[in-house]
Every structure is written in structure tokens, then in C-alpha cells.
Please model this.
Amino acid sequence: MATSEASTTYKKIQVRRYKPEENPEKNYLNEEKGLWAWLTTVDHKKIGLMYLASIAFFFLVGGILALILRTELWTPARSFLDADLYNQVFTLHGAIMVFFFLVPSVPTVLGNFVLPLQLGAKDVAFPRLNLASFYIYLIGALFTLTAILTGGVDTGWTFYTPYSATTGGNVIMMTLGVFILGFSSILTGVNFIVTIHKLRSPGMTWAKLPLNLWALYATSIIQILATPVLAITLLLLTMERALGIGIFDPALGGDPVLYQHFFWFYSHPAVYIMIVPGFGIISEVVSTFSKKIIFGYWAIALSSLAIAFIGFLVWGHHMFTAGQSSLANLVFSFLTFMVGIPTGIKIFNWVATMYKGSIDMKTPMVYVMIFLFLFMIGGFTGIMVGALSVDIHLHDTYYVVAHFHYVMVGGMVMAFLGGIHYWWPKMFGKMYSELWAKIAAGILFIGFNMTFLPQFIMGSQGMPRRYFNYLEQFQPFHQTSTVGAYLMGTGFLIVAIYLTYSLFKGKKAGPNPWGSRALEWQTASPPPLHNFEHIPVIINGPYDYHKPMSEFQLGVASKHNGHHAEETVDVPESAQEKA
Amino acid sequence: MSSTSATEEKRLDHVQHHFVDSEQQFESAKMGMWVFIVTEILMFGGLFVAYIVYRSWYPELYLEASTQLNAFWGMVNTFVLIGSSLTVAMAIRSAQLNQIKGLIYNLYITIGLAFTFMVIKYFEYSEKLGKGIAPGEYYTYDGLEHEKANIFFSIYYMMTGLHGVHVTIGIGLMIWLVVKAKKNVFHSEYYTPVEITGLYWHLVDIIWIFLFPLLYLID
Model:
């Protein structure tokens, strides 16, 4: 702690304690009323909730498509879909889940809601741009739905050329939909980066930035660097179909592998767009429910950036069998292993945070446990498919399908659910049923493993992905998988039911139901329209559970904004011992 | 800043609720535009990569096909755009000095130069399309021997076309600035939109400065 002599170079501000209001009459949900106020709001919290509704819708659509696929796969050959329709359904399942659920989910819903709260800001840097991002997302979604209704797409979510340039259906509509969606993603990234740089409240140094924000920062960097490349790739693909420009089409002298390079230059970093914000949530939840300072703050913060950086250098591992040079294969395989290092660092630090903590097994923490278990399996199998010799055998089999579902559903979706359960009381000021939440988490865990463990086995025995038909010997595995899928569907349904129920009948949550030290819990639940009634001042890190709560509820005492004031420091009594 | 005089109020009414002061708002907007420029560079970067890949595969194709491009008009356009970069910088200068008339005139000149650029581009395109030098499978010109000539022109049309879209967006932005300037929105304390549109315009200019030699001046 700086002494008064040493702090002469710093700005001095007068602070006092602001206890969050227990039951605020006015909050962001009731201050502006009516549908129009919602549709035109620039409030980051409401925009977050609108994203939540849209994303839940697309998750439902993608989930129903998945169940249709699994039902068809109950028996070999045709059960009720023909092969062409099957191709369309798996394409839409992939494209919708990836582009309309996984990529936007955590940043746009939880990021939008929590980021300014954690910074102590009133809003994101560009609130109108934020609203525009939401509508761009909707326009992209509209294009995609039009594509589904006017011919469909059967290329797989990767739109590989030359097939995507020549097949029937409405590929142009679909790629334009994703192209437009990309802008939503880019603008959200721009907004978050600027907000984190410029809108931190007094005292919020980089070293006190919550790890969730480090993760969102890393994610935003990937979003702004990778998404434009996807945009240009899809534009070239669209032109390929519309004008036959020939850059990717071998019949016209182009090169399809170039398309794969372009596509994966975005789409591999994109998997980190999906998972890294999940890491942020895990860091927050682990510390809160272990009641303990996070172990290895800088290791976790910087490993997010390391993942963002290395993640850009591994795209070639998707093309081990596509005729890349052996040298390129070697380098990409090595770099792929490198990503395991920062990821491993995170896992160890989370486990070390729990060590000797007083762990409270509330629902968000249950999801953290599920995440750690499933994501480990997903991560290690990723190392296996990243190994050159093994990948030749496993490439394009169900093993790969199982691997990325373990990472994406077992990792990212579980982290997302953990985050939703963690911040739900903050969002709506209501508690959900803890019992039902744990039951649902259990069902999801069992259902998930039933669905995807058999796929590892099938894949290693040679069951190719994206096939409508299969050999008799795989039937028991496929049937187990299908039962598991329905179990998971039931789990998600239960989650939807008790969360909706809690909105109407839930107990009041109070400002800080988990006893967290993080800044977003030091305001009322639901928060007021501009987040805080004061300007928060931060003197401790967000995970300093060894310090009293009063030190986390400080704000600027005067009417001043804390940027230009030249006043003497007035630290409350509890903090003075250290001063 | 605690002054409540009417002029002071007017000077500060541009500060949005979530910023503590004008400076923070300005810095945020500027940083936002710089980050956006990074995304633009990566977007064009994809096309530059396609350019490099095909040039390394078919170097002779580029030498041969670029002779079809008119270096003189390309040069004229380069000067037009560099000139417009100067005038947009002068527009920002005028805004900083509170010379709203100068701001409007400079914006008019910039818009005029941008239009000139697009008109020249239009004549270049129509001349080529008339000869049958169209992108991809619509390519019917037989004056070039190289069998992949269509690919060069696909890349040419994609790069200059995307650049043209950016010029058009820039024209739209500057017309919007003129409308706002006429409503007396800008003054020396608040000219953020002028500043960041200027940044954007310099980017459009710089991309052309790379496109011109890479496409027109190979031989």
C-alpha cells in the first residue's frame, strides 16, 4: 500500500462505502417499460437479455435438428429421412450451433451483461453500436432461415469447395447470412476491447481486472483478427457461386485447398472464440465457491492471451490429409501440441484454487466440476487427433465428432450453463430451485457421456462422420448415443422450465447471494439502469477473499467523477490498518 | 468544469451518459476506429494472400495480364486519392480551429475527389467489360494467351471492387458529416466523427496505394 508521501504522483479521491441496496424499487428491468423501449434500448444489460432469448431460440432449433439426426441413426439405412435430407439436417445443425449459438453465446449474453458491471462502467463504450450488433445478428439469422426455407444447404458447416460451389440448394443465402453475422461478432469485439481499455473505474488496474474480462479481452482479439478473414473467404465463395471467379474451383483453375486454408484460419481460432470466454466464467465461479483467492492470477490471465496467440498458428491441423506438405504437417502438429500448455496451466490453477478452499457445491460449481471432467477428455483427445500418425486413422470419423462435442458441449456449453446459473440472480434478482438445478446438471452429465463416449469407440473402429448409413456392428453404439441425446434434451428442458419458473415464483436473491468479492455483486440485483448509483473505486483484486467485504464496496464520495479531483484520500476505517 | 454557463452546457452536450468526460469519449471513439481498421486490414489481407499465392504459382500470368490495365488512369486515381487524404486532414484541422466553413468546404472537396475516383474506376471497368474481360466464367477475352487469365481478373475485380465499396461508404460518411456540420454540431471541443471518418479515409487511401503498384505496375 502506498504511503501518503509516495502517492503524491497519483490522483487523490475521496471514497466512502456504498452498501448495495437490498430490494431496489427501480432497476433496469422496470425503469423503461414496453416493447419499443426494449427494442431500441442501448442498455448493455437488456441487449444481453435479448441476445439470451435469440441464442436460446437457436440452441433449441439446433438441438431439435440434432435429435432428428440421432433418431434417424437409430437403425442403419433409411428410417424416416432420406440421405439428401439427412445431409441438410446435419449441415444446419452444425452451422446453426456454431455460428448462431457457440460463437456469440458467452460474449454477447454474459459478456454484454457482466463486462461493464465488472469494470464499474455505466455501459459499454459504444452502446448504439452494441444494439446495432444485435440487429446485424438478427439480419444474419434471417438470411440463414431464408436459406433453410428456400432449398437448404447440404455442404456441412465448413462449406468446402468445390462441392459448395456446385451443389444445389441456397448456399449463397447461407454464406451471406454467416458473412453478415460476422460483422456482429467483429463489432462486439471492437466494443469490448475499447470498453476494457477506456472505461475502467478508478483503481481498476490491469492487475485487478477480473479473469472473466481477461478471457473476454483475449476472445475479442481473436474475434477482430479472425472474423474478417472468414468474411472475405465467404465473400469469395459467394462470388464463386454467383460469378464463377474460379479462385477456389479447380474446374476453373482455382485451388480448393486454398479455401480450406482460408476457412480454417478463421474457424480454428473460432473454436477459441467459443471456449476462452468459458474459461473466464470458470475462473470467476471457482474462486467464488472456493471462497479463496484465485491461484495463479497472472498465469490464468496470460494463458488466455497465449491461447489466442497460438490459436492462430494451428489451423493446418485440419488439413493433415488434404495434401499439405509433410513439413507443414509437422509444424502444425507441433504447434497444436503447444496449445495444450496454456490450457493445462489453466486447469492446474483452477484445481489449485479449490485446494484447501471451503468449497460450496452450489449449482454453478457443479457445472465447473462437470466442465473440468468433460473438457479434460475433450482436450486430451484433441492432442490425439493433433498427432500426425493417429490423425490419419481418425480423420473424418466419429472420433473427431466426439472430440469437438466434448470440447464444445462438455466444455463451452457447461461453462455457459455455469455462468447462467452464476449470474442469474444478478440478471433477474431471483433464485432458481437449487434441487432441480442439480438434478438437471446430473441428467445432462449422464446424457452427455452416453451420447458421445460411444462415438469415440465407433470412431476409432472406423465409423466415418456425416454418413447416413452404417454397418450393423455399430448399431448398439448408435442406439446408446441416441438414448443419451434424448436424455440431454430432457436435461435442457428441465433447465428451461425451472429457470422460467424462477422468474415468476423465485425467491428474492439479494445483491450478493454467493458472498462474492467481485464488483458486479456490489450493486443491487437486478442492477439499476446505469449499473451503480456511484462511481466504484477499486482497491483490492476481485478474488481477495481474505479482506473484509467493506473494502469492496467503495465509491467516490463526492459528486465528482474521480478523474480530475484533487482531494485528500479518505480510506474507511477497516482499510486504514494497511494504509 | 463545474461552470453552468450556457455556452459551457452547449460545449458538453455531446458527452454521452456513460463517459465521464469529453476526452474519454474522444479517446474511446478513436481507439474503436483503430481497432476497426485492424479488422479491415485483415479482411483485405485475405485478398492479398490470394494475390500472393496465385502470383507465386503463375508469375508470368501477372506480367502478361497486368498489361491490360491502364497504368495512366491508375496513376491519376492514385493522385486523386492522395489529394483527398490531404483535404480530409485539412477538414480535421479546420474543425480543431473551429472553422466550420473550412470544414464543410474541405469535406466537399474530399467528396468531389472520391467521386472522381469512382468515375474513373467506372470507365476503367466498362472498358474492360466491353472487351470481354469479365470475372471468372464470364471471361471471354482472347487477347491473352495465358489460360488462367480469368483468375488474375477475378482477383483484380475482387480487390478493386471491395475497395470501391469502401470508397462509396466513405462518400456516404462524409455527406453525413457535411449535414451534421451544417447543423453546427461540430466545434473545436467536439469533432470526433470528423476525426474517425478521416482515419477511415486514410485507410481507404493506403489500401489503394498498395493495390495500384501490385496490379498496374508489375511490368
Chain B has one domain: 25-216. Residues 1-6 of chain B have pLDDT under 50 and may be disordered. The interface with chain A takes residues 1, 16-21, 24, 27-29, 31-32, 35-36, 38-40, 42-47, 49-50, 53-54, 135-138, 147-148, 150-151, 154-155, 157-158, 162 of chain B (CB under 8 Å).
